[in-house]
Design goal:
By secondary structure, this protein is mainly alpha-helical. Helices cover 67% and strands 4% of the residues. α5 runs antiparallel to α6, α8 packs antiparallel against α16 and α10 runs antiparallel to α11. The longest helix has 37 residues.
């Protein structure tokens, strides 16, 4: 791979790579270097748009990506203070509008898309290796009194960070393994996917497990039922050998898996807190059904709507950080957070845009499969997989923490595939146009 071929997407690659840097112990997990580079990436694309004086987005792309702005503007005016409204709106615009649009504009062809997909895999392997080391050496975040929870470089203040990164890498690897025609690349991607199953298990994240199982099953079905049955049988056999045969964290993993089915019979405190905050979010929405309580308004209104079952916060410790109570400032459900703070207008705008992206992506994937699936199937499986994982995970989580910027990149990849990249190799107009030489186009 020659450097000139990847230069246009280097800003996006840098955003991904910077998530491999360690976060200081006890850090609050706010904006970091990756967020700063994402802002520079957006600025760079804006300058190119002004200089080239062209309209790089189709009407469909502009409507889908710009739709959330309406709900955000209304919700910002209803915030408790101008500062909260501006801060909240800026964060939402970064994650769901500006960065995805910038990624869409930077990607010229499927080769660029694959570079970003492999970047996700590389970051996941790095974070996963650190997480496995934390489990084996007892230097991870605290879990049931033992510092064994794999959190990578994100620390105990963001226990979901490593799990999210590993899931993104795993989904990219599965998509590349199922759709790539080159045997060597398919083998490497399959090995990466299998390796990432270990740190995913050691993250003890039930929401990540569920979202990953749903997404990988969807990818297998989209790639073909016969292949789905074969790969499913192999994955099940490896899981039995890994956990049952070698006993890799078998007792704790079994207990964690069983707790998924006990959310109504005997829920632990974390599940009770989540249900309580969900109920509080719904109660806030009932007060302001159309516009919500305003951006950044959930923490302020939480105590007035939550029951006494809500605890003071979650305990965090380990991975170099001292014990602390982490306040519960969101309902850990993206849809309910939007509903509470932005009302039906905001939810329809955001979720409507996500649904449109998924429909466009699936239509593009079907188009590529009808054409033979030899070129572009891997990109479609990766893009649709990332979007399905994110929309599933939003049932159990919301935005927050350093890894959130990766969500924006994922939406950018999904947007490129659904809105510009599934036309069977036709050239794509972007803000960073660079002619592809005939010999390079043939290699793609």
């Amino acid at each position: 791979m020659r450097l000139p071929r990847v230069v246009p997407v280097l800003p996006a690659v840098m955003v991904i790579a910077l998530l491999g840097l360690p976060i200081g112990p006890g850090g609050e997990g706010g904006a970091g270097p990756a967020d700063a580079v994402s802002a520079l990436m957006v600025l760079y694309c804006g300058i190119r748009l002004v200089r080239d004086r062209r309209r790089p987005l189709s009407r469909t792309a502009a409507v889908i990506l710009g739709l959330p702005v309406v709900g955000l503007a209304i919700a910002a005016t209803g915030a408790a203070s101008p500062g909260a409204g501006i801060t909240g709106m800026g964060r939402y615009l970064q994650i769901f509008v500006l960065v995805p649009a910038a990624v869409l504009l930077l990607i010229r062809h499927r080769g660029d898309f694959r570079v970003l997909a492999w970047s996700f895999v590389g970051l996941a392997l790095w974070q996963g290796a650190i997480g496995v080391h934390q489990f084996l050496t007892g230097t991870g975040a605290s879990y049931q009194g033992q510092e064994i929870r794999a959190v990578g470089t994100f620390g105990a203040q963001d226990v979901m960070g490593m799990a999210t990164v590993v899931c993104f890498g795993l989904i990219c690897a599965v998509g590349l393994a199922l759709g790539t025609t080159a045997v060597r690349q398919r083998a490497v991607a399959a090995c990466c996917a299998l390796a990432l199953l270990v740190p995913l298990a050691l993250s003890f994240s039930r929401g990540a497990w569920i979202a990953t199982a749903v997404t990988c099953s969807a990818q297998l079905v989209l790639a073909g039922m016969r292949r789905a049955l074969k790969v499913g049988a192999v994955a099940a056999a490896l899981g039995v050998i890994l956990v049952g045969g070698f006993g890799v964290g078998s007792a704790m993993l079994q207990e964690r898996v069983n707790s998924i089915t006990q959310v109504t019979d005997a829920p632990d405190q974390s599940v009770t807190d989540r249900y309580t905050m969900w109920a509080a979010a719904v109660d806030m929405w009932r007060e302001q059904p159309l516009t919500g309580v305003g951006l950044k308004g959930f923490p302020e209104h939480r105590d007035a709507h939550a029951s006494l079952a809500l605890s003071a916060g979650s305990d965090t410790e380990g991975a170099g950080a001292a014990f602390r109570k982490q306040p519960l400032l969101s309902p850990h459900n993206m849809y309910l957070l939007i509903l509470a703070e932005q009302g039906l207008i905001g939810l329809l705008a955001l979720a409507g845009g996500w649904s449109a992206l998924l429909v466009c992506g699936l239509r593009g994937l079907a188009r590529v499969r009808r054409a033979g699936g030899g070129n572009g199937l891997d990109c479609g499986l990766v893009a649709c997989g990332l979007l399905v994982w994110q929309l599933t995970d939003f049932v159990y989580a919301d935005i927050g923490g350093p890894s959130t910027v990766l969500t924006a990149v994922c939406f950018g990849l999904a947007a490129w595939w659904g809105l510009a990249g599934n036309d069977s190799g036709k050239p794509v107009r972007t803000a960073a146009p660079a002619p592809v030489r005939p010999e390079e186009a043939a290699a793609l």
